[in-house]
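Deliverable D2.4 — example input (structure tokens):
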């Protein structure tokens, strides 16, 4: 039997939003398997998918750039260690400069981007090291996303923590900005239900089937319940199916139809998404140091 630690319970609680005792029991039943425990809790409680994807677990900034003709653009994520440094104008401007380089020079590979020259004459890597010396923190270039289009591009930055770039046709500039803002707020995983990965859909179907079976209803009713939940799930995670944030009475799909517009694709970066941030325990660190001194 695996040891169930307080940190494991805390992590599962943050992922699911459920109580500590429920999380501990689920971990015990699944022998400490975090993913299996999450699925078990979803089945028993009817909870939605993991909340972990929305957590910001590292610091940094998103830089964005779109060309004057709105047909070429990029997003870049630059990470640092603290929110204090993330608010510094130097790192914000560095991220903006990188986004322009990625877009205009087609430098989607981080190694190639690091070797690229800046207008100052130094390379991106040299500029990064200079920032480390100036700001006193490790700074890294994590990822970039580049778009080119025959339509137009729009982007939205929520502060410097969330960046969205939308490739669309039809409509006008304000529509593109509205759609980008909607994506930042509602966080769809793709444009339409046809783009949802089959593995993701199958996993959710299994969860919904297990949840519905808990009701004790006949198999034909369970099947209808699952189909209904799948339809609702697809509406929640796809851009076209979501209620538009500025007017929840209509979906994004209906809004686009009214504007004779279409979304071809989008990129969304959330600072630190998917990175586990080390949590320092000062008291434990002091104890460890005292133990070493003895």
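Example output (designed residues):
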């Amino acid at each position: 039997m695996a040891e169930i630690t307080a940190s494991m319970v805390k992590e599962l609680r943050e992922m699911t939003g459920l109580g500590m005792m429920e999380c501990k029991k689920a971990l015990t039943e699944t022998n400490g398997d975090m993913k299996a425990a999450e699925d078990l809790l979803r089945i028993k409680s009817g909870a939605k998918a993991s909340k972990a994807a929305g957590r910001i677990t590292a610091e940094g900034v998103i830089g964005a750039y779109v060309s004057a003709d709105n047909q070429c653009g990029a997003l870049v994520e630059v990470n640092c260690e603290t929110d204090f440094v993330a608010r510094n104008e130097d790192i914000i401007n560095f991220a903006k400069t990188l986004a322009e380089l990625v877009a205009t020079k087609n430098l989607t590979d981080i190694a190639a981007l690091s070797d690229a020259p800046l207008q100052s004459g130094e390379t991106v890597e040299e500029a990064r090291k200079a920032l480390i010396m100036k700001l006193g923190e490790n700074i890294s270039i994590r990822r970039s996303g580049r778009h080119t289009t025959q339509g137009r591009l729009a982007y939205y930055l929520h502060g410097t923590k969330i960046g969205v770039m939308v490739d669309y046709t039809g409509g006008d500039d304000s529509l593109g900005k509205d759609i980008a803002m909607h994506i930042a707020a509602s966080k769809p995983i793709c444009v339409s239900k046809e783009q949802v990965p089959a593995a993701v859909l199958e996993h959710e179907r299994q969860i919904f089937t297990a949840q519905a079976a808990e009701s004790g209803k006949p198999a034909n009713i369970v099947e209808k319940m699952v189909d209904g939940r799948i339809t609702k799930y697809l509406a929640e995670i796809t851009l076209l199916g979501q209620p538009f944030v500025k007017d929840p009475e209509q979906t994004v799909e209906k809004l686009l139809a009214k504007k004779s517009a279409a979304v071809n694709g989008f990129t969304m970066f959330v600072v630190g998404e998917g990175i586990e941030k080390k949590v320092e325990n000062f008291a434990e660190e002091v104890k460890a140091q005292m133990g070493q001194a003895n």
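The first helix runs from residue 6 to 16.
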